Structures are given as structure tokens and as C-alpha cells.
């Protein structure tokens, strides 16, 4: 079998590098942590009904303590934001901002985007999410944010 230069061929479960090809090793900076997401409708409904709400000018965040000991993210973007391309851009902005933040506590978070989010850059979205998380953390410590059972 003739190998082209720079070609990566799959053979079984192993990958063989062709002659002259270069592979860059991923540094720690390039590796992105995976976001654990909420995908089921019943989980969204549970957070909406049992959770608490906090908001900013471009985002609304619902938070519920949950049963799982991890931070899960759900993103909701309505058709009011725009066409599918714009809604997906809003989702990507929120997901990337969440990935860059370090969430110190666990629970289920649902972030609802308002139409004005499309005017923001990723740094601005990250700042808004972190401000809301600080409000949630303050409320958690004071006991105002949680119900007696949660």
C-alpha cells in the first residue's frame, strides 16, 4: 500500500503515521474540559420548577442544587434570538464561557439567553455568568437562595 506524505491512515485500532508527517502533541492549554450537560426535558422542568432564578441584562440563570455531585449545564435559546445560526452562536458563546470558568459548587444550571446576547463578545458573556454565579454563591452562604429542603 502506497502512503502519501502527511497522511494518517487507520489500521485496526492503531493509527500509523505516513512518512514525512508531523504530529503536534497537545499541550495542557489546548485540552478543553468537557462540559457536562443537561439533555432531558424532565431535568429542565425540574430545575425550572424547583430551582431559583437569577438574571442579568443578557442572561437568566436557573439553579437547583440537584442530586448529582457535579455541575451540569443546560442552555436554552429561544427563536426570539434569531435564526438557527444566531441561536447556535449564542449557545457556543455560553458553552465556551462556562468552560473557561471554574465552578466551585455543584448543581444543575440552566442558562437562558436573551436576544441582546448576540451583541456581546465571549469575555462579556463570561463576566456576566461569573457575576451571576457570585450572586448565587452569596445567596447560598446566607441561606436566602436555597429552600429548606435543597
Write up this protein:
Helices cover 32% and strands 21% of the residues. A hairpin with a 2-residue loop joins β1 and β2. With 150 residues, it is an alpha+beta fold. α2 packs across α3. The N terminus and C terminus are likely disordered. The N and C termini lie far apart (63 Å). The strands form 2 sheets. The chain has a 4-stranded mixed beta sheet with strand order 3-4-6-5, sandwiched between helices. The protein has a two-stranded antiparallel sheet with strand order 1-2. It has a domain of 102 residues: 2-Layer Sandwich (Ribosomal Protein S5, domain 2), CATH 3.30.230.
Brief write-up:
The protein is built from three helices and six strands; from the N terminus they run E-E-H-E-E-E-H-E-H. With 150 residues, it is of the alpha+beta class.
Describe the sheet with the most strands: 4 strands, mixed
Name of the top-level CATH class of the domain at 41-142: Alpha Beta
Question: Which structural class should the secondary elements be placed in?
Answer: alpha+beta
Task: Average the pLDDT over all residues and give the rounded result.
Answer: 79
Oligomer: single chain
| Number of β-strand runs | 6
Query: Number of helix segments?
Result: 3
Approximately how much beta-strand content do the residues carry?
A: 15-25%
Q: What general outline do the C-alpha atoms trace?
A: globular
**What integer value in Å does the Rg equal?**
20 Å
Alpha carbon gap, first and last residue: 63 Å
CATH topology of the domain at 41-142: Ribosomal Protein S5, domain 2
Unreliable spans are: 1-30, 146-150
SSE arrangement, N to C: EEHEEEHEH
Q: Which strands sit side by side, in order, in the main sheet?
A: 3-4-6-5
Provide the CATH architecture of the domain at 41-142: 2-Layer Sandwich
Helix content: 25-40%
